[in-house]
Every structure is written in structure tokens, then in C-alpha cells.
Design goal:
The chain has 12 helices and 16 strands. The chain has 447 residues and is α+β, with helices and mostly antiparallel strands.
């Protein structure tokens, strides 16, 4: 009923990954549901799961959260469950999910798709906070809004498949003036509440765009946080945000603000390329990679790509005709001159049509491979066949080819001068072909 635990869950103690001692403690925890204070609190309902009665896989998931949180010490785990159930009843936590809150608070957080494991992502943008408005009636309403957000997130979970959440805390725009006494009190209260009453609901928390004074505040509000929970925190410097987030979130689900392709909910579709599933490839140092696309006359070639970190060379060439048996037509024209960037999104309207090659060049990099995420589409015509080909100056490459559904490969003979040369730095329209040259792109600054 649940796939095997993945390595990024850090530790044992998940369903189907229990030691004999842990399994025995889980059995004893189930037996305790009908005893003592837990019996007095019956019927027991927590996070959409009924505890007690016939044992279910969902019950195992819930009880194991408390056991892991207490390092598989039964009595502390039982007491934390009792405390959680009592708190939920007195606080009416379940009702918070459907409550409405003032815009000064509700604009601070939202859901945005999911990570690679299917976990819902909650993004909190604390740079938007206006302490005077958010805490006009004290911190209680803000704390309850945080509970509401957590309850909404839990309602999206299928405990047998996905049992925890991912948070991105964005501090872009946060200043010392916004981190006043009330803000610190609210942050501390929410951290303690989540630690005590929502054990093991956090899969990972990313802190992005953190200000210079973040460390002092972080140490203050997490003073009671367990080392296990702190191990799930990932602090991203401004230069590492995209790289770190892409390790856990597909580029299609990563918001544009953090270097991904995903737009905010409700944003109109910008181009046909947004319908395409992004592909990922690793390009070796000294290697190249190309995507081949047939564009009909009047068709539009649309692309978007990004690297996890560092830049890469990019150029688009056009083969002069669809026919490949005519030597004259094997020449190519440069239609998008060479650039070096870490992200690029644009389009090109082809009046004549033809075969286009989107070439990614890493030959100037002596040491570093590049993780490329890309998507390419054609609109305005009926032809839509894509192939991609890795190349390398070395005999081996770890690049992964991506082909169209018809799996039409590109042979080496149909790769017209794919390598990037100094002569590819041209700005002329596609009426003049690029010439071959042995001088390579400057390799003095490897990335």
C-alpha cells in the first residue's frame, strides 16, 4: 500500500522500513489506543484518520509520526498524541481549515503544486508582511491562520502515499523593521505549536532570500526545535536557490520566482511551450547537446530552458531545406546568435520553414557538467517532430537523449555543423550561412 521509503526521508521508522523493535513498539502503541486517557478521549480522529478499532495502514502512518518524533520512546509518544488530541478539541483546529482571514494575513501564504514525491508545497512570502496590519489584534489571528494553512495542506494528503508537506519560506523584502517583537513572538509560537501538535508533517523547509540578520532570529525561534526537524531545514543563499530547489522540485512545478517554469495560479498561459513537459539532460564538460525541430512555413518555434546553476552556450541554426539528399541544402544558417546564459525563453517565427537545431554548448567548460531543463514546441503548423542528440569532445557522455513519441532519431549525418565556433557570433538574418572555424568559444573562464 505504500512504496518503499526513499533515501531523502533521512531515517528509518517509516512503514515497510521498521526494525523488529520498532514494529513491536508500533503494535504496543495500537494496543494503548484503548487504554487510559486515550480511551477516555474516544472516538479518536486525527487528520482524517480514525484511530482504534480495526487496524489500517493509515493508522500506522499516523502513529509512526509520533514514535519518530519521540525517537521511538513509547510513553512520550503516547503522551504527545494525548496532548495533540486535547489541544485540537480545545482549539477547534479542524474548523480553522475553512475559516477566512484578513488579506493582510492571507496574502502571506499559498499552495503551489508539489515536489518530486508528490508532496504539496506551501509558500510563505514574509517580505509582504506589514506587522501593524497583520498583528493589529495581537498574534493569535496570525497563529490561527498558520494552523488553517497546515490543516488545508493535510487535507490534500493521502496518508498511504504522501504523508508530509514541503514549505518554502521566502524572506525577500524582509527588513529589520518588519522583524519586530510581535513578528518574533508569532514565529516562535507557530514553530512550537507545529512541533508539539503536528509531528513529522514537515518533509522539508526551504529558507530563501534570507537577510543577513536571519541567523540570529532563526536560532531564537528554533531553540526548542528537535535536531531531527532542523535536519529538514535547507537555507538557500541567493546564488543557490534554483540549484537547491531543483534537487527536490521538478522545473515544471518550481515557481518562476525561483528559476522554474511554473506560473502563479490564475496567470494566463503565455505560449504553447507551457503545455510541454520539461525534459532534463546532463551535458558533460566539453560536450554539446542539440534538439532538432521541424517547423512548417509560417510556424513559430518556442523554447524555454534553464540550467540548475552556471551558464551554457545557446544558439539556433536552420538547415536550409527539409530535403537532406541535396548537398547544397545541408548548409545551415544561424537564426539566433550565440548567447551564454543560465535561462532563456523566447520564440522565432519561420517564414520559410525548415529543420531547426537548438544547440547547447558546454565545450568552454573544462570541469563542470551542466544540468539542463528544457521544453520546445512548434505552433502554427502540423509538423511537430522533435529529436535531441548529445555530443561530446570526449568518448563518453552522461547526457540523456529525449525524443518525440515516434522515436525518430537524428543520425550524425543529419547534424549540420552542430558544434559552436567563433564564426557563430553573427547577427545576420537566415539568408547567409555560418562558416566553419577551428577557433573555439573562449575557455578561459570555465563554469
Amino acid at each position: 500500500w505504500r512504496s518503499a521509503r526513499t533515501r531523502d526521508d533521512h531515517m528509518s521508522g517509516f512503514p515497510h522500513d521498521l526494525s523488529p523493535a520498532q514494529a513491536d513498539l508500533l503494535d504496543k502503541f495500537h494496543a494503548r489506543l484503548g487504554e487510559g486517557e486515550l480511551q477516555a478521549l474516544a472516538p479518536l480522529h486525527l487528520w482524517g484518520v480514525t484511530l482504534g478499532g480495526s487496524r489500517t495502514p493509515e493508522q500506522d502512518v499516523v502513529l509512526l509520526k509520533f514514535l519518530r518524533a519521540r525517537e521511538f520512546k513509547l510513553e512520550p509518544a503516547v503522551q504527545q498524541l494525548v496532548d495533540t488530541l486535547k489541544w485540537r478539541a480545545s482549539y477547534n483546529a479542524a474548523a480553522a481549515k475553512d475559516e477566512e482571514f484578513p488579506p493582510a494575513i492571507s496574502m502571506l501564504g499559498s499552495f503551489h503544486k508539489h515536489d518530486k514525491q508528490g508532496r504539496p508545497i506551501i509558500i510563505n512570502k514574509y517580505g509582504r508582511i506589514d506587522p501593524a496590519a497583520a498583528f493589529s489584534e495581537g498574534i493569535d489571528k496570525f497563529v490561527r491562520w498558520c494552523v488553517s494553512l497546515m490543516e488545508r495542506g493535510i487535507s490534500k494528503l493521502d496518508m498511504c502515499k504522501v504523508e508530509d508537506l514541503v514549505f518554502i519560506h521566502d524572506y525577500n523584502g524582509v527588513s529589520m523593521s518588519k522583524m519586530d517583537k510581535r513578528t518574533r513572538q508569532a514565529s516562535k509560537a507557530v514553530t512550537e505549536l507545529f512541533t508539539h501538535y503536528y509531528p513529522e508533517m514537515l518533509a522539508r523547509k526551504f529558507f530563501v532570500n534570507v537577510p543577513w540578520f536571519f541567523e540570529a532570529m532563526f536560532n531564537l525561534v528554533t531553540i526548542t526545535t528537535s535536531d531531527r526537524t532542523k535536519s529538514k531545514f535547507v537555507v538557500c543563499s541567493k546564488g543557490s536557490i534554483k540549484e537547491k530547489l531543483l534537487l527536490f522540485i521538478d522545473v515544471d512545478c518550481l515557481p518562476e520566482d525561483y528559476g522554474g517554469f511554473s506560473k502563479e495560479e490564475g496567470t494566463p498561459q503565455g505560449s504553447v511551450v507551457e503545455e510541454e513537459k520539461a525534459l532534463e539532460v546532463v551535458i558533460d564538460s566539453r560536450g554539446t547537446f542539440q534538439v532538432r525541430k521541424e517547423v512548417p512555413p509560417g510556424g513559430e518555434l518556442v523554447w524555454e530552458w534553464t540550467t540548475a546553476d552556471k551558464d551554457i552556450g545557446f544558439i539556433i541554426k536552420r538547415q536550409r531545406d527539409f530535403q537532406e539528399d541535396d548537398e547544397a541544402n545541408k548548409k545551415v544558417d544561424v537564426v539566433i546568435p550565440l548567447v551564454r546564459a543560465s535561462h532563456h525563453a523566447s520564440s522565432y517565427v519561420s517564414e520559410l520553414g525548415g529543420v531547426y537545431y537548438l544547440v547547447f554548448d558546454n565545450t568552454y567548460s573544462v570541469l563542470n557538467k551542466k544540468n539542463l531543463h528544457y521544453r520546445v514546441a512548434v505552433s502554427g503548423g502540423t509538423s511537430d517532430r522533435t529529436t535531441s542528440t548529445p555530443e561530446s569532445s570526449s568518448s563518453s557522455t552522461s547526457s540523456t537523449s529525449a525524443t518525440t513519441p515516434d522515436n525518430a532519431p537524428v543520425s550524425e549525418t543529419t547534424n549540420p555543423d552542430a558544434s559552436l565556433t567563433a564564426s557563430d557570433h553573427v547577427t545576420s538574418p537566415p539568408t547567409s550561412s555560418s562558416s566553419s572555424s577551428s577557433s573555439s568559444v573562449d575557455d578561459a573562464h570555465p563554469h
